Amino acid sequence: MFKIGLVGGTGYTGVELLRLLAMHPQAEPVVITSRGEAGMAVAEMFPNLRGFVDLRFSEPDLDQLTACDLVFFATPNGTAMQMTPELLAAGVRVVDLAADFRLKDPQVWQQWYGMEHACPELLEEAVYGLPEMNRAAIRQARLVANPGCYPTAVTLGFLPLLEAGLVDSASLIADAKSGVSGAGRKASVGSLLAECGESFKAYAAPGHRHLPEIRQNLAQLIGSPVGLTFVPHLLPMIRGIHATLYARLQREADVQQLFEQRYAGEYFVDVLPAGAHPETRSVRGVNQCRLAVHRPQQGDTLVVLSVIDNLVKGAAGQAIQNMNLMLGLDEKLGLESVALLP
Amino acid sequence: MFKIGLVGGTGYTGVELLRLLAMHPQAEPVVITSRGEAGMAVAEMFPNLRGFVDLRFSEPDLDQLTACDLVFFATPNGTAMQMTPELLAAGVRVVDLAADFRLKDPQVWQQWYGMEHACPELLEEAVYGLPEMNRAAIRQARLVANPGCYPTAVTLGFLPLLEAGLVDSASLIADAKSGVSGAGRKASVGSLLAECGESFKAYAAPGHRHLPEIRQNLAQLIGSPVGLTFVPHLLPMIRGIHATLYARLQREADVQQLFEQRYAGEYFVDVLPAGAHPETRSVRGVNQCRLAVHRPQQGDTLVVLSVIDNLVKGAAGQAIQNMNLMLGLDEKLGLESVALLP
Amino acid sequence: MFKIGLVGGTGYTGVELLRLLAMHPQAEPVVITSRGEAGMAVAEMFPNLRGFVDLRFSEPDLDQLTACDLVFFATPNGTAMQMTPELLAAGVRVVDLAADFRLKDPQVWQQWYGMEHACPELLEEAVYGLPEMNRAAIRQARLVANPGCYPTAVTLGFLPLLEAGLVDSASLIADAKSGVSGAGRKASVGSLLAECGESFKAYAAPGHRHLPEIRQNLAQLIGSPVGLTFVPHLLPMIRGIHATLYARLQREADVQQLFEQRYAGEYFVDVLPAGAHPETRSVRGVNQCRLAVHRPQQGDTLVVLSVIDNLVKGAAGQAIQNMNLMLGLDEKLGLESVALLP
Amino acid sequence: MFKIGLVGGTGYTGVELLRLLAMHPQAEPVVITSRGEAGMAVAEMFPNLRGFVDLRFSEPDLDQLTACDLVFFATPNGTAMQMTPELLAAGVRVVDLAADFRLKDPQVWQQWYGMEHACPELLEEAVYGLPEMNRAAIRQARLVANPGCYPTAVTLGFLPLLEAGLVDSASLIADAKSGVSGAGRKASVGSLLAECGESFKAYAAPGHRHLPEIRQNLAQLIGSPVGLTFVPHLLPMIRGIHATLYARLQREADVQQLFEQRYAGEYFVDVLPAGAHPETRSVRGVNQCRLAVHRPQQGDTLVVLSVIDNLVKGAAGQAIQNMNLMLGLDEKLGLESVALLP
Predict the structure, then answer these.
(1) Which residues contact B247 (CB under 8 A, 6 or more apart)?
(2) pLDDT at D82
(3) C240 vs D contacts (CB less than 8 Å)
(4) How confident is the model at residue C264 (pLDDT cuts 50, 70, 90)?
(5) Residue C179's closest chain A neighbor by CA?
(6) Nearest C-alpha neighbor of D279 from the set B71, B201, C194, A57
(7) pTM here?
(8) Which of C68, C119, C149, C289 is catalytic?
(9) Using only C-alpha atoms, what is the Rg of chain C?
């Protein structure tokens, strides 16, 4: 049984990691830290964990954390980079679910996250934890940057097209919609049910922090910069991301076959039959990305529909997938459940 | 007091027309037909109308309808075209809230609506009831085709850009999201709360009936065909449409100023300040379109955000606006209420 | 045109008062105070008010407020009691939408609200603003305590039964359910969409602040204390209260007729036909209480179903109703709109 | 591996049974019937099952069903009673998720379900499948009547009080609220998101089919008839039942301790600490009932709060629990997952 530490367990990615770990046959959470809630039983804050998780939140303690095989950071941006060097030095593997190690360029990081990076020397070593792109490197990694939710949905949707050089990489459009759990479990007027229920809006159209991350991913796929317009929107629901992607076809190809072949061996990516429209609920609670590709009216604009659960394949589930790879376990371990529908 | 008839009053556009007419100072519903519900008190089906509407549904009766000044059709597609010629012959003005008279080309209509048009000779005369495009013609019209909900939101969003010749008309993209009331008040598994609540999906990506209508509008604005990709999505909420529009800028311009000037005299179109993101709830229950325009990262892709209430500016409210114009009344009469928020 | 002041306009009762005042023909808001948001345009915070309310939030200023005919307090509990004596002294009428003047006994108030009352001498003078109980007194009042949302729904439901002495007043049960806007527009984890969406729970079962207020109302109806169990619940929706009331019948009577007769002259209370079940949406946005009364299986337990919009008849609408009475206007002025359905 | 048949798999209890069976280590669905959808892949209708269930719906075939170890009926009321005698004769165990075998008295059944019972001789043998009441009998049963959703939540909440003779059994009140999935996956105007979203109402106050079932359960507990008022309500959400139960205390007792002791050995019933309020989301997707008991203001009215997922402990999960008992398996097998929160 691998010993798992969790730094910052009071948010939605925290409770979701604990839910998944509670059902994982070979990994066990042994310490969960929270400065603000130290002493409180985890199951008091998250009643779904009653009977499954007996831990209490504790103050972060380096000795306890270095006794773990792997530590997850489910903290606000800027926290993991403070503690990670010591953990790595102690031989502990680290998966950061925040953004600290996602961008390779510390200048870009500073520009978008508004603070200086505390350990830029680790940015090169950190592996971007999208197994469908970087599986081999993740297996060897000490430090994994777990991808953002939007970047996961968008990158998996564009990936086959860009790898195949099939579309104009200068005019990509990602119109993405997220449930409100993506904003986290923090008191904020904008996330109140009475504010975002029964309503819909775009936000951060001028520029969202996931934009440079997506651009970095897509550029890696083709070896040069891409032109991308990314507009996120807030859905009046809890879980789920739907990315609607638009790209200009540059030459004829069987795109349905392309998607099916590219993801044939990927357990966590499901390409739907031609003509389908994935629903976010079809992945509720599970570590899966479901994709469909359309070519409306046989024109030159391709439309890719990509859905994930932002808290699972977009956060905690993908983190467990990365953990499995880093610990030499079966990648699917603990992640084979069925989505909750309806 | 003008006498108003309503053919087909059991759907959401029906109850919304009645709500608005109940508060209109110069128009009064005198007959509401429904074959299926003849005899039932309207307020029994729609309890919000108790105390405001005393009518009962009745079998359609030509004498009663020809005694009206104006008749609204809130019927399924294909019904209005059967009865309209007789009403016009009797001197009654007609506003069709369905699609029967929206497309100018009967071949295109037949292709998308799957039936032969019953009175193609009226298609040319019928005025497309988007006052912000066709106000003068609506004032003179005997027959108005009330626009679809998506076409209203999309057309008003693209209109200033296309009129000004500012963007590439060959690569327009409209990513549109609608509340489920757009599917109407009919028993259907796909519209159950348990099916579409807490979920989100695209639908009809290969081609939606509003596509030819939008194309016709946009082509009229520039005098030649446009290239448009239109993907509608279903929101887990009742009312509201949000269209996110993407267009390639072809030359420099102050687009904020362009939008403000174009709509300066339009009471029902509100251009938000630069940087804003309209919410659908800001127009809940009112006959308004709120717009914002963005140019992310100062690139060459413009993003227009357009929101309406699909049942008001997207249906019944616009129908009243058209009625006001056709009857020589103040265009705003009965339509000056404040949106319900939260 | 009467001049109206509004102290504390940044919450949901604030925006709702402004929505209703914007459509009121004889009252006009001239000052809206907010210490936290002074300087901000009201329509920037509440986009539904764009084009209808041009005011900005300002620091509370006694001179401005004493120039008003009437001042509404839409502030947290404990604020109105600080400023009310000065306003009354200046001849301004006051309607407090918070709880400061609802309870007659300052000891009870202190017990439930956790602070000493600042002007207990006004408690006797203050009129409890439920017009269906106290209309004549409200017409003469300088100071009106606008009822709580739960107390409005519960009191109107029990009123005919208690006035008629028909039920056992020692074993009343009120099982009440409220939309989340009742918790106000303040950042709080418990009111996040991701916390209270798609879920339901009771809260404050041991004792809620509205319990003594309801008890006081019901005791006033029969002239002696009542035994009441009151359990509030949180609904995963924005607006609406549904109170399900249980009472033991003590003698035979035609309760349907009793309800209809008691409320025959009350414009804002609508008794549904026998057998009906009122929906909260049937009063969405309007100043109405809809009631139905059942006697299941002809047993001795009566069930009363009572719905209101917590922000209208449960707060801002009732405040306008009280204002109309206090200013000698038609009680219905500005309050005759139709509920938004669907 | 036990072979499981499922008659009628196109509803919500059907998909939920399949979800749970897909994760069950010792039971496997081998046939799923649907007259209407014969030939369609199950995973096409329920996309969450893609990759987990490869079956297609088939016409009901007695040979296929009699080859099963156990058959579930997830059919409309009145279907199971037609086929059950033959299946039992062939040695197949049967669990009916509909109401056919829940009531012991065929006259009462006929009165509430509007048809004559097809095999009244089986009503005595059929075991009511609430393991917390009837575990031993279920283990021996050939035929189990799976309880209704409301009866499960209400019975488990009243059970300790009635068994202990602590409350007045003549004046019980159950105010119950259910998510809309309880109405099933059938096209019906009343269950549309646009009809029941953002609204709340009671229904069937004069008498609901679950009333005689609950009465039968409660009467069994005390050996004599009870007086019960039961009012169901419709929640604007998908899953979850919350029953708020009221009972008059007849003598002093430590009710918290009573509940904890009664359910100490029950894995699927969780008594919360004193003062708690269970949320329906805390049992979303899992086979659990969470309970809390209150005595407001130390009066003589007890309040029990009981939550379940109507599709799991209220239907499919309890059916699997019964299956485990009937097949001699560990009662918890396949049912130990963690609720999905948020």
Answers:
(1) B158, B161, B167, B168, B171, B172, B173, B301, B302, B304
(2) 97
(3) 198-200
(4) very high
(5) A194
(6) C194
(7) 0.98
(8) C149
(9) 19
The predicted pLDDT at position A297 comes to: 95
Taking residues D276-299, report their average pLDDT: 98
Residues in contact with C220: Cβ distance below 8 Å, sequence separation at least 6, in sequence order = C133
Count of structural domains, chain B:
2
A341 falls within a domain: no
- Whether this model's ipTM surpasses 0.90 comes out as yes
Is C68 noted as a catalytic residue in this protein? no
> What's the confidence (pLDDT) of residue D91?
98
Claim to verify: residue B298 and residue B180 sit in the same structural domain: yes
Q: What is the pLDDT of residue A42?
A: 97
Q: How far is CA A115 from the centre of its chain?
A: 22
What are the mean pLDDT values of chain B's consecutive 10-residue runs (342 residues total)? 96 97 97 95 96 96 97 97 98 98 97 97 97 98 98 98 98 98 96 98 97 98 98 98 98 97 98 98 98 97 98 98 98 97 97
Q: Are residues C182 and C297 in the same domain?
A: yes
| A94 domain-assigned | yes
Distance from CA of C195 to the nearest CA of A (A): 8
Any idea of the CA torsion for B12, B18, B23, B29, to the nearest 10 degrees?
160
> Which residue range is the domain that position B240 belongs to?
150-310
- Distance of alpha carbon B209 from alpha carbon B229, whole angstroms: 13
Choosing from A110, A125, A140, the residue where a domain stops is A125
**Residues D71 and D104 both lie in one domain:** yes
Residues of D in contact with B181 (CB under 8 A): 194
Mean pLDDT of C171-186: 97
**Cβ pairs C/D, distance under 8 A:** 147
CA distance B64 to B7: 11
Indicate yes or no: CB of A180 within 8 angstroms of CB of C194.
Answer: yes
pLDDT at D129: 98
Those residues of chain A whose CB sits closer than 8 Å to some CB in chain C are 12, 179-181, 183, 185-189, 191-198, 236-238
pLDDT per position as a tens digit, A87-146: 999 999 999 999 999 999 999 999 999 999 999 999 999 999 999 999 999 999 999 999
Q: Mutation test of the interface with chain A: which of C193, C195, C310, choosing the one with the most A Cβ atoms within 10 A?
A: C193
Residue at C106 is within a domain: yes
Do B301 and B154 sit in the same domain of this protein?
yes
Please list every residue in chain B whose beta carbon sits closer than 8 Å to the beta carbon of residue A236: 235-237
Q: How far is D289 from chain C (nearest CA, A)?
A: 14
Per-residue CA distances from D200 to C177, C234, C236, C305, D177 (Å): 9, 11, 10, 11, 9
pLDDT of residue B105: 97
State how far residue B185 is from chain D, nearest Cα, in angstroms.
7
Strands D241-248 and D172-178: antiparallel
Domain shared by C59 and C204, yes or no: no
Radius of gyration of chain A (CA): 19
Note whether residue D340 is domain-resident.
no
Q: What integer best gives the mean pLDDT of chain D?
A: 97
What pLDDT, on a 0 to 100 scale, did the predictor assign at position C296? 98
Say which residues have a Cβ less than 8 Å from residue C25's Cβ, sequence separation at least 6: C333, C334
Mind listing the pLDDT tens digit for each residue in C22-76? 999 999 999 999 999 999 999 999 999 999 999 999 999 999 999 999 999 999 9
Supply the pLDDT for residue C113. Answer: 97
CB contact under 8 A, B246 and A230: no
SS3 D221: helix
Tokens standing for residue A132: 């469908």
Cβ-based contacts of C280 with chain D (< 8 Å) = 199-201
Q: How far is the alpha carbon of A37 from chain C, nearest alpha carbon, in Å?
A: 14
The answer on D290 and D175 residing in a single domain is yes
Interface test with A, best of B201, B244, B286, B305 (most A CBs within 10 A): B201
Query: What CATH number did the domain enclosing C104 receive?
Result: 3.40.50.720
**C43 and C166 share one domain:** no
